[in-house]
Amino acid sequence: MGSEQADRAVLFYESRSFNYDDSWHDDFTKRFAAEINIQPGQHVLDLACGTGLLTFLEADAVGPSGHVTGVDVTPGMLRVAEFKKRKEPEKYANVDFYQGDILKLQEIEALKGKQFDIITASSALVLFPDPKAAIELWAEFLKPGGTFAVDSTHPRNLVPGMVLERVARRLDLSVPYNREWSQNESSLKGVLESAGLKVDKVITVENQSGYGKRQYEVGQWDDFFVENVIVKDVARTFANNDIRRKAQGLYKEEWERLAVNGQVEEVDSVFLGVARKPADGSRYVPSSSSKETVFEGGCRCGGVRYTSTQQPSQVTFCYCRACSRVSGSGYLPFCHVDDDALTFTHTSTMKTLVLSKAAERFFCTGCGAPIAMKYFDQEVTGLVLGSLDLDTFKGAMPNVEQHIFLREKAPWVTVPDDGAKRMEAFEEMEIK
Ligand SMILES: C[S@@+](CC[C@H](N)C(=O)[O-])C[C@H]1O[C@@H](n2cnc3c(N)ncnc32)[C@H](O)[C@@H]1O
Prior knowledge:
CENP-V/GFA, Rossmann fold, metal-binding, zinc, 432 residues
């Protein structure tokens, strides 16, 4: 029996199998293969191999003395792959395909006891509910020193689908992908490292499907709702009328939240990571995680958790209208930590929202708690002070340093006379 994820993937991909190769995947797999140093004679495992676009490129690279194994769960995708192999049986004698659920790789008979020089998973990681657990399992099939290559999406890639994912999460429905955790190159690096692999590189591949960037009008939400929730709903997730009605309102809300100046931007990029299992076969421990954690924190329900290896600094009370609204209070208190000191350890209910040009906010969709604010173009994150677990805190909490955005302060809030700096607006604020 496959996992629930696998069953949904089959529903999603079976009908797409026949035309799958007439898409940008053909070009993208070439760019993916070019980033891995595949040598003649090597043994490669291509996970979620689909119709074999990447698998056959790998077979060309390893040559007759090497071997490539492709695994996928969707019968239609594998039928296309087998058809291509049959067209060139001699050339591709070094390729074998197996049907199986890669979340249960240990159950695939042909893989028992095997380890590979290289494992790849192209255009697949964001299909899995727990990317760290998936990579940990796959890494067991990697030889010591072996290479693992994978990609994950830019947060505004295929933005109508991202909105759909947020709607489904709010309605407690599952969709066949999980992209919310993939925010930037660091998120992919963090997932690879947390699974015990040492990252060689993470790059941003632009123009994945050839359009670069697109702007949509905020009013276009309805077109995307019809396309994604009604026309493309092969798994019949939203088939019930009541659910569909609720989904419609939420889709509009989530779409509008992504809009800046009336436009929703779509970015045609993905992050591509290449990592290694340490040569002695151990788990890689990144240097930041070998530093001592000085505090932990998270939301009320535990769906979002983080650790910091740095003391909090620059305690700031923000009185802007957005902070007031998201907190339901007069202000939000933040402290700052450098991005490389901060690790999100649980993100199952984490969601991001862009409410201004300055930053992206992180929330928990399980209990509604605001968690953090990631400033664009700065390697600093503001953590909502109330999310810190004070019982884990080692050190002294710094005093309040500044009260900001007082120009937008609600009239019923009194700013404490605590000697901290007071600023009317953002331009005066310096993030340290
Ligand atoms: C977007 S396609 C990528 C195919 C190929 N890697 C490529 O780059 O062209 C995603 C593939 O993941 C496969 N897949 C999804 N979940 C899977 C699972 N649990 N086990 C095996 N394959 C899975 C689907 O069947 C589909 O073929």
